[in-house]
Specification:
Layout: H1 6-19, H2 25-39, E1 43-49, E2 52-59, E3 61-68, E4 76-77, H3 85-95, H4 101-111, H5 127-151, H6 158-173, H7 179-204, H8 209-215, H9 217-232, H10 243-258, H11 264-277, H12 282-297, H13 304-315, H14 319-328, H15 331-334, H16 336-346, H17 350-370, H18 374-392, H19 396-404, H20 410-424
Antiparallel strand pairs: 1-2, 2-3, 3-4
Helix pairs in contact: 2-3, 5-6, 5-7, 5-10, 6-9, 7-9, 7-10, 9-11, 10-11, 11-13, 12-13, 13-14, 16-17, 16-18, 17-18, 17-19, 18-19
Protein name: SWIM-type domain-containing protein
């Protein structure tokens, strides 16, 4: 989509402020219905061509809107109304590229001295309060769509949940009300909240966790990919305006671990990713370390909180303690040592990677037994140990891990010996 001309958007906004009167029930309904369509992601195919802006809005069926950038009297919708909810939904989608649609609605009501006690005010002088309110709007949006798309059908089987969830997710990812500054953070928040709602649904489902993981894998992996993509493209350094939202999000991320059952490994990967790349504030990390320690102490060895505590120790610099906690949690959790190695590899801390590698080699046979795809597992392990060899000029650990992964690693081990022979000139 080409950018909507800012001059058109400014003038059309002023035009709507004058044309629509919130004291008129019909006008108020058009604005509210348009905002609801926009929030639910029903505006699609919005694009600019010469002096026109065109859009499609799905409201039971497809409606096409045409906006003239200079002569607003030429604006049309094939619902045959002069100014309708479909045009308002399209306007909010355009306006949200640079602003906040709900803020526009509040300004419109203020412009006409209209008091609506049922509507929360988003225009406040305290910016921190505004950002926390913004977070609540994102959560409420996700909950509203989940209620509409999922919970309204109480007997929905997991394979249908997967399909409906993917539709819901697309609506959330196409939602632009957050504005440019908060767009990536908005997408992280709604994906985390959607995962939280799904995990809660899984726990109360009559289906087994294995059945759920088999049938809802596509949906949960899409959520994980969205969070990874947006987290990896966050601005650096993070704006201070993110701080109050991150503090609220921290609570929802914690809740993911309490909803242990299906997709535990995905949840822990998301937890690690967000604490590694988003939650940088010293205050939050100190509080989370204390919380994770207390929660892990009250949990059994298979609890996800044991892994979370281990990772909090790791990012606080207590590497040996982190490894001790993860190893004491049983072989099913020791696999995360490989992720820790990757964490330090990205920081070019190869001494820490090497320390962790020794521990990993001791347990690698157990990991092989648990791997869904041994060949993919070997490739991933070997790629990390190959980096260790290159950066430390020591090849012993790479050889050891390949030997431990026999017979699956037979071909890779043969290549390793062949390459070492050529390098050493033997």
């Amino acid at each position: 989509m080409n950018s909507v001309p800012s001059l058109f958007l400014h003038k059309y906004s002023d035009y709507l402020l004058e044309q629509l009167d919130p004291h008129q029930a019909e006008d108020l309904q058009k604005v509210e219905d348009g905002f609801s369509l926009y929030r639910e992601g029903m505006v699609q195919d919005l694009y600019v061509e010469k002096n026109f802006v065109m859009s499609s809005v799905f409201d039971g069926k497809k409606f096409d809107c045409l906006f003239h950038t200079h002569l607003f009297s030429l604006n049309t919708c094939n619902c045959n109304q002069r100014l309708c909810q479909h045009m308002m939904a399209s306007f909010f989608a355009m306006y949200s590229e640079t602003g906040n649609a709900e803020t526009w609605i509040n300004e419109w009501k203020l412009h006409h001295n209209f008091e609506d006690k049922a509507s929360p005010k988003t225009v406040v002088s305290n910016s921190k309060k505004a950002e926390i309110d913004l977070y609540k709007q994102w959560i409420d949006l996700t909950d509203h769509l989940f209620e509409k798309e999922i919970l309204s059908n109480k007997s929905m089987p997991p394979y249908l949940l997967n399909l409906h969830g993917l539709v819901l997710l697309k609506k959330l990812m196409n939602h632009y009300d957050a504005g440019y500054e908060f767009r990536k953070l908005f997408q992280i928040v709604v994906n985390v909240r959607l995962l939280e709602k799904l995990l809660d649904w899984f726990i109360s489902s009559r289906y087994s966790y294995q059945e759920i993981e088999d049938m809802c894998k596509q949906l949960v992996e899409a959520i994980q990919t969205n969070i990874e993509t947006e987290t990896n493209h966050l601005p650096n350094p993070l704006p201070f305006s993110y701080d109050p939202i991150c503090e609220k999000l921290r609570g929802n991320v914690r809740e993911l671990l309490f909803l242990q059952g299906a997709f535990d490994h995905v949840v822990l990967q998301i937890y690690r990713l967000l604490w590694q790349n988003l939650f940088h504030q010293k205050k939050l990390r100190k509080e989370e370390l204390a919380f994770a320690e207390k929660t892990a102490a009250k949990s059994d060895t298979k609890s996800s909180w044991r892994v979370a505590y281990s990772f909090q120790l790791l990012i606080s610099g207590q590497v040996n303690d982190a490894v001790s906690v993860i190893e004491s949690s049983g072989p099913e959790h020791s696999i995360y040592i490989l992720d820790y190695m990757d964490y330090f590899a990205k920081k070019n801390d190869w001494n820490s990677v090497k320390r962790l590698a020794h521990s990993f080699v001791q347990h690698v046979k157990t990991y092989m037994e648990q791997a869904d795809n041994p060949w993919r597992f070997i490739n991933y392990v070997d790629s990390i140990f190959e980096q260790v060899s290159e950066h430390t000029l020591s090849f012993d650990l790479q050889e050891q891990v390949l030997v431990e992964m026999l017979p699956y690693s037979r071909k890779r081990l043969a290549n390793f010996y062949f390459e070492r022979k050529n390098i050493n000139g033997c």
